[in-house]
Design goal:
By secondary structure, this protein is of the alpha/beta class. 40% of the residues lie in helices and 18% in strands.
């Protein structure tokens, strides 16, 4: 038996795949490579190239492989772009999830771990976000992730689907050489590409109500995140009690200024970041409690900030 990882050729999905393999659990991958990379797929893992909007492809995949459950990582993950492309975002994140759930139901597969997002909270009015913090998404992306959670909840009522949703915050670092974040919108790759191109990285605003004036965010290592996906899958498979949602957060925060200092030290490229104007809607601080996930999903911060920067930098340079 195996677990299907949708989006398993992407940055996060490829780490989830390797966490399953490290636990001696077989994996199958489906990915359309719209943001994933074929070279991220281990040679021994069955790989279906295509969209989860393709019900026929999913039907064939489930017919050809004994699937125990699904880790659903595939999706359109660019919150800012989603404001300009709401229909595309809803198609990729809501319609595609519904197609996947129908294919699972048709195949008799009734376990799923869903990749959700901190974007469901919008701009929370609290110093420490918990799973019970009010949901107020501020982009089609955040809305689509919340709807995905609702779809799982409703399928659980209707069909007995066993499910949980993991709300990510800022995922960084690398657990394997050659696996790195290629997003054109995330902070770490933006800084690395600037340094590699000889440009000066920038900070959007330094007048926030924080210790150094820059935004404080929750940064978590991708390998730690991947371990908790396996723990969630194993808990579902064992039929143990599981919460419908978990925050994968540090309980602490790191400022953008602190990240820039760590980047300069780890890379050996000294720089003073350019200070740009604030971005509209950026709150001073967003940090989440990971206590519920620590209790149930082997969640812990195994990596320091320097570990996160160093592993991400080494993986990016190994791929250069």
């Amino acid at each position: 038996m195996a677990w299907l990882v949708t989006g398993g050729a992407g940055y996060i999905g490829s780490h989830v795949v390797r966490a399953f393999l490290a636990d001696n659990i077989d994996v199958v991958i489906v990915d359309d490579l719209s943001s994933g990379h074929a070279e991220f797929v281990p040679a021994e893992v069955p790989f279906y190239r295509g969209s989860i909007l393709d019900a026929e492809l999913l039907g064939r995949l489930f017919a050809e492989n004994p699937i125990d459950g699904v880790v659903h990582v595939a999706g359109f993950k660019y919150a800012g772009v989603s404001v300009q492309r709401p229909l595309h975002t809803y198609e990729q994140n809501v319609t595609a999830t519904a197609v996947l759930l129908q294919a699972m139901q048709d195949a008799g597969v009734n376990r799923i771990v869903f990749s959700s997002s901190a974007a469901v909270y919008g701009t929370p009015n609290t110093d420490l976000v918990t799973e019970d913090t009010p949901k107020a998404p501020e982009s089609p992306y955040g809305e689509s992730k919340l709807i995905g959670e609702w779809l799982l909840r409703d399928e659980g009522v209707a069909t007995g689907l066993a499910h949980t949703s993991l709300r990510y915050f800022n995922v960084v670092g690398s657990g394997h050489d050659g696996l790195y974040d290629t997003s054109p919108h995330n902070l770490f790759p933006l800084v690395f590409e600037a340094l590699l191109d000889g440009r000066t990285p920038r900070i959007n605003g330094n007048d926030y109500a924080t210790a150094d004036g820059t935004c404080v965010r929750d940064y978590i290592h991708v390998a730690d995140l991947a371990i908790s996906h396996v723990a969630a899958a194993e808990r579902l498979q064992a039929g143990r009690e599981i919460e419908p949602v978990y925050n994968l957060g540090s309980g602490d925060g790191v400022s953008v200024g602190e990240i820039m200092s760590a980047m300069a030290e780890v890379t050996g490229i000294p720089f003073a970041p350019e200070i740009a104007p604030r971005r509209a809607g950026d709150p001073d601080r967003i940090v989440a409690s990971g206590e519920r996930a620590r209790r149930d999903l082997d969640w812990q911060m195994r990596h320091t900030l320097d570990d996160m920067v160093r592993s991400a930098w080494e993986a990016r340079r190994a791929a250069a």
